[in-house]
TrEMBL record:
SUPFAM superfamilies tied to this protein: P-loop containing nucleoside triphosphate hydrolases
Assigned keywords, A-Z: ATP-binding, Nucleotide-binding
Keyword ATP-binding belongs to the record: yes
PANTHER family in UniProt: SLR6007 PROTEIN, UNCHARACTERIZED PROTEIN YJGR-RELATED
Region (Disordered): 552-577
The protein's name: ATP-binding protein
UniProt organism field: Nonomuraea mesophila
Molecular function via GO: ATP binding
Listed InterPro entries: P-loop_NTPase, T4SS_component
């Protein structure tokens, strides 16, 4: 349970005269018995001739205590024994966030400093000018913190970048809470029902139960939701897409814990050829640097022109040869490209045999990972496409796929959704895309088809209503243009070496140090309006974050007679919130 907020307007000290005060920062000497902590919001006022009272508000960024009168380190023992007179002094550095009205004068030494009351806090953190604000968690003073939705929906900015150590920074949990807050805070008004979210899940089956109540949600957590103005309930509309089970002739979704609201996704060989998906088979940055990158485009164009549908299972006929599996298609290409009589028809020019062989080696290595999702042996009429139209939140489960196949799925699905938004001609309704491990899909070095799409989303998505919520362990390894286009930046627990990188220049030095010891559930959120990042603690999820937490939906709850059903097993850890 959060501690009660301090008394509104409580005086805590005076502006120091021994340290220079400026319109951007100043120091406060604390009165005996008074305490401030990092992230407290404080205010002071000054009467300026011709302008009247000017409010100077800021956030505490440093707190220090020392013996005043001690000359040597060993004096601490004499002072503690009462043999040497000295006074304990506590001081705090305040970084100014707002001056109202904008008369940039320093606060005067000796001026009283107060903890910000409700109205002053709203002004200090610019919450009073946020016409559309969404709660992002609780501050250290036990009161709600907000982010301006104008910097999320494309009005004045878009995109979110979340960084932190894997397993400790709770990046995915914060991303889902942010989505939940957007959907339930009322900022979307009439657009709420049509606004969509697309989540790519790589963490087992933990995200497949967002529409189930969390069995571990207690009354304390419910009270936090109430103070944030949010209902404590799961997501209302969720659809899961999973790849087919390997070797299953019926294309049953490859999930074990969830049985309802799950559909298989795959691409037929007809679609693979018509949509030129071959380039997403070569989606690594290394592929673009290889000499066969031009050959990929040539072969994809030939497949589009020459492939003809065969039967109703999605198989194709190319140059008189039928292919019913991805392995068949690869073998067909291998035969065509290794034959001197047909090679030039596919390459369009004289291509060194070494380049062709390198292309084929890479293509053959894709047979095993892609065979479950590139098919020509399942009924063509079956719905097998990842779509965001079925539910408010669409989850694409990737955890059962090899990394090569994960790249393929992310690239093809993102391209499809981006083109759909382009063709709609309007930015509304919005589409939020949650993608973890962004450094894998859009690395700083090299090029790839996925990176091109993500750059397009980062640079043009704002105008098209496609908002990226990207998460990564190391922002220093993500393409700079994607991070720089993110209006809202978030950091959880950071590795000390990573925290020292220039990509975290938006974190003041003291906050960088704090981020290396931050507890799970604590995030530092920066947004353009506020000159300092806000330290927030988001609440325990009201939705299940793993199968063991999932309560049965109200309409399907059935008593099994097992008194231990729903309780966590020995091997299931409680999430660190």
């Amino acid at each position: 349970m959060e501690e009660a907020a301090p008394a509104a307007g409580e005086a805590v000290g005076r502006v120091l005269g021994t340290q220079a005060a400026s319109p951007l920062s100043f120091w406060v000497g604390l009165e005996p018995g008074k305490v401030v902590q990092l992230d407290d919001v404080v205010v002071t006022r000054r009467d300026v001739p011709g302008y009247g009272p000017v409010l100077v508000a800021g956030v505490v960024t440093t707190v220090e205590a020392r013996h005043e009168g001690a000359a040597y380190d060993s004096d601490v023992f004499l002072i503690a024994d009462g043999a040497l007179p000295a006074a304990v002094v506590e001081v705090a550095e305040v970084r100014v966030t707002r001056v109202e009205p904008e008369v940039f004068v320093p606060p005067l030494p000796g001026a009283k400093v107060h903890l910000a009351g409700s109205d002053d806090r709203e002004q200090a953190l610019y919450f009073d000018v946020m016409d559309r604000r969404i709660p992002i968690g609780m501050g250290r003073d036990g009161r709600p913190m907000y982010v301006n939705f104008d910097f999320l929906d494309g009005t004045r900015g878009a995109h979110v970048s979340i960084s932190g150590v894997s397993g400790v920074a709770t990046k995915t949990s914060f991303a889902t809470f942010l989505l939940y807050s957007i959907f339930n805070s009322g900022v979307l008004d009439a657009e709420s029902a049509n606004t969509k979210a697309l989540i790519f899940s790589v963490k087992g089956e933990d995200l497949l139960f967002l529409d189930h109540d969390n069995l571990r949600l207690d009354e304390g957590a419910r009270a936090v939701y109430a103070r944030l103005g949010l209902p404590a309930r799961p997501f209302g509309s969720v659809h899961v897409f999973a790849p087919p089970r390997p070797g299953d002739a019926n294309g049953v979704p490859h999930v074990s814990a969830r049985t309802q609201g799950v559909s298989s996704f795959y691409w037929t060989l007809v679609e693979f050829c018509e949509e030129e998906l071959l380039r997403f088979v070569f989606a690594d940055a290394d592929d673009e640097r290889a000499g066969y990158s031009l050959l990929v485009g040539q072969v994809a164009a030939r497949l589009k022109a020459w492939a003809e549908p065969v039967g109703d299972g999605g198989a194709v006929m190319v140059q008189g040869t039928a292919a019913r599996t991805f392995a068949d298609l690869v073998e067909l290409l291998s035969d065509q490209l290794q034959d001197e009589g047909t090679r030039q028809q596919w390459t369009g020019a004289q291509t060194p045999l070494g380049t062709v062989n390198a292309f084929l080696r890479r293509l053959r290595s894709a047979v095993r990972p892609l065979s479950p999702i590139v098919r020509g042996d399942l009924p063509f009429y079956r719905n097998h496409t990842v779509s965001t139209s079925d539910a408010q939140v669409s989850i694409v489960d990737l955890h059962n796929l090899p990394e090569r196949a994960q790249r393929f799925v992310v690239g093809v699905v993102l391209r499809g959704e981006f083109h759909r938004k382009e063709s709609s001609g309007t930015a509304r309704p919005l589409l939020f895309v949650v993608l973890d491990e962004l450094n894998k899909y859009a690395p700083r070095e090299g090029d790839s088809p996925i990176k091109e799409i993500l750059l397009d989303v980062a640079e043009r998505g704002r105008s098209l209503g496609v908002i990226l919520i990207g998460a990564q362990q190391t922002a220093s390894e993500v393409e700079r243009r994607i991070v720089s286009n993110s209006a809202v930046r978030v950091a959880g627990r950071l590795d000390p070496a990573e925290a020292a990188r220039s990509e975290y220049g938006w974190l003041p030095p003291a906050v960088r140090e704090r981020a290396t010891i931050a507890k799970p559930g604590t995030m530092f959120v920066a947004q353009p309006e506020i000159p300092v990042p806000l330290a927030v603690a988001f609440p325990f999820p009201a939705w299940a974050t793993r199968p063991a937490e999932a309560a049965a939906p109200a309409a399907t709850k059935v008593s099994s007679g097992d008194p231990f059903q729903g309780l966590p097993g020995v091997e299931e850890d409680i999430p660190p919130f």
